[in-house]
Design goal:
It is found in: Cytoplasm. This protein is mostly helical. It contains 18 helices and 6 strands. The chain has 3 domains: 91 residues, Fumarase/aspartase (N-terminal domain) (Fumarase C, Chain B, domain 1), CATH 1.10.275; 250 residues, Fumarase/aspartase (Central domain) (Fumarase C, Chain A, domain 2, Up-down Bundle), CATH 1.20.200; 93 residues, Fumarase/aspartase (C-terminal domain) (Ribonucleotide Reductase Protein R1, domain 1), CATH 1.10.40.30. The structure holds arginine.
């Protein structure tokens, strides 16, 4: 006979279409390991409460271990009626150990069970994402150290702005990914609240001590304080979705920079062949597909966040079946980001910077701010200095000269006290070295930041 978790009050069988619509086993089977861990802890709690004997508890634990092994080695055979992972595990347990299996669900509901499973799963995968972020940070750090003094144009509005170093650019992304890691840590901390023992919604009346469960399930450090909230809460998932989506946005921005920088027009970096692909028609093409996919994948991460928030927004207390929809999107976001981060770390580690192309893209106009700063050092108010240098830029354009080619007379026309020392401004390395405020692009500062990161990432 089919093992069902419900059905006594039903006179008619479930329609085949309804089964297909309702069943979640095909995707929530991913929770099997955490589901079994939760059930083992629950069996222990039932024994402690005197609801099952020590022998029954041992039988259940051994049986659950057997089921776990069947899933792990692929010998588990799903059966018609395995509505979800919880049903499948209990059905198989029943076949393996007999009557004791019928006591496992005492005082428990699939509502607190699945809420516990998802938290355990989410904590595990969030930690993995944290490690992937760390690996990407290390790849960026290696590049930053190698290029702490490599000059390149810095952009605002994608217009040449001021000279910076390539190492500084790398460290900007390192900072972003550090915030992502912290956000994930924060979300994990809030996920570590145990719903198990909340029953269907109201609590359990059979004397199961929930506090003891946090000892058996050491991912949890406290029990949920309200049984209704315990089964209804998916905030931690929304938080992780947001953290994942924002990491995706950061990856997308990194990718966009590298797509631009690896174009022939820029040529600042060359991606490894291993992370590029070719064209079926144009033999010369080498496309930055790794980066384009990183940019594109962020769309699903954002979409999955919005999907979950949308599912939750209209739900009355407490559990509603809508919540089954929390799973596929989260699995998808995890899988997507996990692989994206792995690819990003490898692509960053293997890309080759081309300092000569970066240098060639610097032009004198990018030193206009340095000229204005020089006038400030001569006692000119900055707003006036800005306007005077603006006029010099316009003169240079009129005369079709670069700023350093403008004769001294032009400089003296805007500020009579200037002498030929003004030409010392036309030195990109000097410009960068002077940005020595903390967090600035001066190679010295970049190296200090690298040393700080090295210390933290050890
Ligand atoms: N498959 C369900 C889910 O993922 C498990 C909980 C079912 N609870 C219930 N009362 N039908 O949400």
């Amino acid at each position: 006979m089919e093992h069902r978790l419900w059905g006594g009050r039903f006179a008619e069988p479930t329609a085949e279409t309804m089964r297909r619509f309702n069943d979640s086993f095909r995707f929530d089977v991913r929770l099997v390991t955490v589901d079994i861990a939760g059930s083992i802890a629950w069996a222990g709690a039932l024994e402690q409460a005197g609801l099952i004997s020590t022998e029954e508890c041992e039988t259940l634990v051994q049986g659950l271990e057997l089921v776990r092994r069947e899933f792990a080695d692929g010998s588990f055979e799903p059966k018609e009626g395995d509505e979800d992972v919880h049903t499948a595990v209990e059905r198989r347990l029943h076949e393996l150990v007999g009557a004791a299996a019928l006591k496992l669900h005492t005082g428990r509901s699939r509502n607190d069970q699945v809420a516990t499973d998802m938290r355990l799963f989410a904590i595990g995968v969030a930690r993995q994402i944290g490690e992937r972020l760390m690996a990407l940070q290390l790849a960026l750090l290696d590049q930053a150290e190698a290029h702490a003094a490599t000059l390149m144009p810095g952009y605002t509005h994608l217009q040449r702005a001021q000279p910076i170093t390539f190492g500084h650019w790398c460290l900007a992304y390192l900072e972003m990914f550090e915030r992502d890691r912290q956000r994930i840590e924060d979300a994990i901390a809030r996920a570590r609240t145990l719903p198990l023992g909340a029953g269907a919604l109201a609590g359990n009346s059979l004397g199961v001590e929930r506090e003891r469960l946090t000892e058996a399930l050491d991912e949890f450090d406290e029990v949920a304080g309200n049984s209704l909230d315990a089964v209804a809460d998916r905030d931690y998932l929304a938080e992780l979705h947001f953290a994942f989506a924002l990491s995706g946005v950061h990856l997308s921005r990194l990718a966009e920079d590298l797509i631009i920088y690896s174009s022939t027009e820029f040529g600042f970096v060359e991606l490894a062949d291993a992370y590029s692909t070719g064209s079926s028609l144009m033999p010369q093409k080498k496309n930055p597909d790794s980066m384009e996919l990183l940019r594109g994948k962020s769309g699903r991460l954002i979409g999955n966040l919005v999907a979950l928030l949308t599912v939750l927004k209209g739900l009355p207390m407490t559990y509603n079946k809508d919540m089954q929809e929390d799973k596929e999107g989260f699995f998808d976001s995890f899988d997507t980001l996990d692989l994206a981060l792995e690819v990003a770390a490898a692509a960053v580690a293997t890309m080759r910077a081309r300092p000569e192309r970066m240098l060639a893209a610097l032009d004198d106009a990018m030193l206009a701010t340095d000229l204005a700063d020089e006038l400030v050092r001569h006692g000119v108010a900055f707003r006036e200095a800005h306007s005077k240098v603006g006029r010099l830029v316009r003169r240079a354009l009129e005369l079709n000269l670069s700023l350093r080619e403008l004769p001294l007379a032009e400089y003296q026309a805007v500020h009579p006290e200037l002498d030929s020392n003004i030409y010392a401004c036309f030195d990109f390395a000097r410009s960068v070295a002077r940005k020595e405020s903390s967090g600035g692009t001066a190679p010295q500062r970049v190296l200090e930041q690298c040393a700080r990161w090295r210390g933290e990432k050890r």
